[in-house]
Amino acid sequence: MPNLRPLSALVLGLLLAGCANVNPYFDSNKPHHRPEGFANNYPPNPAYQRPKLGFFEGWAARIRNWTKDEAVRAPGAPIEPVAPDLAFIHANRSEPALTWIGHATFLFQTGTGLNILTDPVFDERASPVPFAGPKRHQRPGVALADLPRIDVVLLSHSHYDHLSKDSLRALYRQAGGPPLLVAPLGVDLWLEKNVTGGERSRIVKLDWWDKTTVDGVELHLLPVFHWSARSPWDRNETLWGGFAVTRPGFSFFFSGDLAYSKDIQDIAARFDGFDLAAVGIGAYQPVWYRNSHVSPDEAVRIHRELKVKRSVGMHWGTYPMGQERLDQAPLDLATARAAQGVAEDAFFVMKHGATYRPVGLAAPPPTR
């Protein structure tokens, strides 16, 4: 008989991780607001509907997926990291640069001296408990202790592979003072309770289409099709979103987690293209995962519709979140590029630890 103790403890951890609540930010004039939380702008794609499961049956299936042997999702070939260029990262004040730390965690250097970290997760597991759940396949491309001082942290939503209590607490204690934490509605309350000890001066909460400005750099929260939860009891109590980071001469799109929806066309109508983007390409199998994440084919479509000059694929190769092999997404990305007539250097993947320097895409602005 299998050992059920880890599974039981995981269930208990999930039960204790959150509790039902009302939405303190509810605005009846906003269609995506609900008294109990938030909703997507558009209905799910019926082609990607998951087989009907009851509440407990659905969570039991998800937990089984987290705890089963991960060998079936092992990469077909080694995923080789590279040593990070720490000298450049620490000295860079004037050049846009993107360093992949892993999964959805990037260091984005705006070229103005501002260091931005997206969805920082340095944990061994993307899970509420340390002994079960998706286990990190690749160590962080840049160790948390090796980062330059982080000015801003962008948080897309509350899932464990995007929102880490331990990582954020460490960043909040960094030398030189805490970063600014920019988060969707409701996630700010979680930060206040779990990270900042009640302090709100370094937290900015945003609704969809809201923006805040830091040293001349605009940070916009964008609507995308997804959902949120940290337990079986708090689904969609907090908002989710992608981000646009813009300043004169350069723009960056960070997708967070998203399924393909008309939200992409809405974003395209408000922004005149992007110089650089990080778009999820992993966790798209089985097919119903595509009502939470995009396939490589859909990611290339997003790249084209948002008129992005250069896109980097993320959300693959770090944690086994989907049921495809960890290195399947880059292979399918190559097929999708060819099918949609996108050049190889226009949408590519990076090695863990690598830095992309999009020289020539924009003239460097004045240093902060």
Walkthrough of the structure:
The protein has 368 residues and is an alpha/beta fold. It has a single domain, classed as Metallo-beta-lactamase, Chain A, CATH 3.60.15. It is built from eight helices and 16 strands. The strands form three sheets. The chain has a seven-stranded mixed sheet, with helices on one face. Strands 9-10-11-12-13-14-15 form a seven-stranded mixed sheet, covered by helices on one side. The protein has a two-stranded antiparallel ribbon with strand order 1-2. Helix 7 crosses helix 8. The longest helix is centred in the N-terminal third of the chain and has 13 residues. The chain is globular, with a radius of gyration of 19 Å.
Fold blueprint:
Layout: H1 5-17, E1 33-34, E2 37-38, H2 55-67, H3 86-91, E3 96-102, E4 105-110, E5 115-118, E6 152-154, H4 165-172, E7 180-184, H5 187-194, E8 203-206, E9 211-214, E10 217-222, E11 242-247, E12 250-254, H6 263-270, E13 274-280, H7 296-305, E14 308-314, H8 328-340, E15 347-349, E16 355-356
Concise overview:
The protein is an alpha/beta fold.
* Number of helices, where a helix is a run of at least 4 consecutive DSSP H or I residues: 8
Major beta sheet, strand line-up:
8-7-6-5-4-3-16
CATH class categorisation = Alpha Beta
Query: Roughly how much helix do the residues carry, as a percent range?
Result: 10-25%
According to CATH, the fold-level topology is: Metallo-beta-lactamase, Chain A
Give the count of structural domains: 1
Strand count = 16
CATH superfamily: Ribonuclease Z/Hydroxyacylglutathione hydrolase-like
